[in-house]
Amino acid sequence: MRRRNLTTMQPLLSVNQLKIHFPVLGGVFKKRIGSVKAVDDVSFSIAPGETLGLVGESGCGKSTLGKAIVRLYEPNAGSIHFQGHDISHASQSSIRPLRRDMQMIFQDPSESLNARHSVRSILEEPFIIHGIGNKEERRIWVNQLLDRVGLPANSADKYSFEFSGGQRQRIGIARAIALKPKLIICDEPVSALDVSVQSQVLNLLLELQQEMGLSYLFIAHDLAVVKHISDRVAVMYLGKIVELADADAIYQKPRHAYTKALLSAIPEPKPSVKKTRILLEGDVPSPINPPAGSAFGHRINHPLYEQTIGQTFPLREIEPNHFVAADPCCLSTEDYAKVSQTV
Amino acid sequence: MSDILLDVRKLITAFDTDSGLLRAVDQVSFSVKKRQTVGIVGESGCGKSVTAMSIVRLLPQPSGKILEGEILFKGNDLTKVDSKDMRRIRGNEIGVIFQEPMTALNPSHRIGKQLSECFLLHKNMSKKEAWQASLEMLHLVRIPAPEIRMSDYPHQLSGGMRQRIVIAMALACRPDLIIADEPTTALDVTVQAQILDLIKHQQEELGMSMILITHDLGVIAETCDEVVVMYGGRIVERAPVKTIFENPRHAYTKGLLHSMPHLDTPRKSMLPVIPGMVASLNQFVHGCRFCQRMKREGSVLRERPLYKEISPNHWVEACPQCVEGI
């Protein structure tokens, strides 16, 4: 019931064929000698109240994608629509009102919170920037925020370094929810936390989503965490989304060889279960000089790799709401036949 | 008795700080048999790394020191060995793999030179022999094109490759014991799987024992024979890996196991949590420190629970509040 609503509703965020390329400078005159295709032709959307998980190895472009959505980077091509507005090239001043509805939580809260400001002034800042409320009202709101994220009321007059990692992440979350946003980009929000604190923060994020109808773009490399919190999951490899599906589907029936390899690499906390593991050789290739054909086919030395040179692999719907890159190196023969027909 | 390689007995390690001598490791006892892998788990600040660094005597100086206890390595008490002999043992008989390979490698020396050093120092080889042996080590840890890599600097390698180099260095002298402190925490899952596979494979091949420190219970389940669970500088539970996962007795072990989302936890359900957080070193009570976290009161906070064997090879800190039926 709820699932149907998510897909038929007008998306809150839709990203279309987005490209973020960074220049590579070289030589004595620092001329542009190439580019890093950090995000290359990525499309997806997020419905109100939905969580989209984004997974991939380091360097695959997942954080760049997150930052591009809040427009910390300028896209080279493609579009980003938020609440129906095209924000892909909007100026920083015209985007400001929309920023209220779009917030970000970072991995390392000690770096994203100003150590010279008290918690009160960190939490008040969003209200001041957007000109909301008077001093007294703001004081009450800050106290409410602290209470909501489970911090004692006297935290307001302390500084961020006086808190533990988990508490600092709570401050980061309080700041993100201050203006009652619609979308929060969470960039590895629990990776730096201990196991027991991680579950506390995940529970808080889930509660807030239920109460406020928030949407999350949840970027992480821990696949068990992503599965737990997400409705749908997108798998990124070398700047591209290679598979996008409902969280349960992607974990139960992964189609792309890279997704399969990622899942098989998770160490399971069950000593009696012996898993068969797909061991990948080497690392993610450099996005400065990516393989000419199927990027993952190259890594696994697939016999069909030569044939894929020069080709692109658009996402195809293999089953309702399950999209996968139509790459002959990375799909089973059956699956490839199925997606080739849908062209 | 003879198959015990390392026997740590009632180890107490403390740091000299402004607020006095604080015990980061408080009477820890465990042993490692030959060819066995012992995992140490716990949250940050529970004393895992300090325990390991006490064994190889690499505690931060001058503040860290071993106050009491014995560390018997092949029957030799490492706490009494002088620092010159310790240098010989470290690297030669005990290899260490650190978490962050970039800090473990010297950025200004080429890989070949750094690796050769182990052989020059411990094995009395000539430069040429050492170079050859280093090259073999790179082959062993499956570095592609090792001849070229020998003349690279650490920054030219990826994180996974650097970690392989650090493993190669730790294995170079075929030590009897490897201490791996969070060897894969900084790496991606796919690279982590490669590295764990590599460590396990080499360990079996060379017949070494290992102490693996990690906070990832999945890694523990896949690589260890025995598990030591630490909380607040003490061992709260110690048992064979299957027992820890299937029949945990201490509330902290149970809490750790449950709070982690598994692939089969129902999606978007609330996870069980361990409330609160680890107290800081100078606030620890003498009694049960997990009861302190759970805000329990009374005598449990004053009297230190006994560390006892409740069934063969299964040890717990027997706090009546934390362990049912004790």
Task: Sum up the structure in keywords.
A: 343 residues; alpha/beta; Rossmann fold; 14 helices; 12 strands; disordered N terminus; B: 326 residues; 8-stranded mixed beta sheet
Overview of the structural elements:
The complex is a heterodimer of chains A (343) and B (326). Chain A contains 14 helices and twelve strands. By secondary structure, chain A is an alpha/beta fold. Chain A has an eight-stranded mixed sheet, with helices on both faces. Chain A has a four-stranded antiparallel sheet with strand order 2-1-4-5. In chain A, helix 5 crosses helix 6 and helix 7 runs parallel beside helix 8. The longest helix of chain A has 18 residues. Chain B has 326 residues and is of the alpha/beta class. Chain B has a single domain, classed as Rossmann fold (3-Layer(aba) Sandwich). In chain B, a hairpin with a 2-residue loop joins strand 4 and strand 5. Chain B is globular, with a radius of gyration of 21 Å. The model of chain B has no long low-confidence stretch (mean pLDDT 90). Chains A and B meet through helix 8, helix 9, helix 10 and helix 11 of A and helix 7, helix 8, helix 9, helix 10 and helix 11 of B.
How many strands appear in the DSSP assignment of chain A? 12
Q: What level of helicity do the residues of chain B show?
A: 25-40%
Which structural class should the secondary elements of chain B be placed in? alpha/beta
What Rg of chain A, in angstroms, do the CA atoms define? 21 Å
Strand content of chain B: 15-25%
Q: What gross morphology of chain B would you assign? A: globular
Count of alpha/pi helices of chain B: 12
Instruction: Assign the CATH class of chain B.
Output: Alpha Beta
CATH architecture of chain B: 3-Layer(aba) Sandwich
Structural class of chain A: alpha/beta
- Give the overall shape of chain A: globular
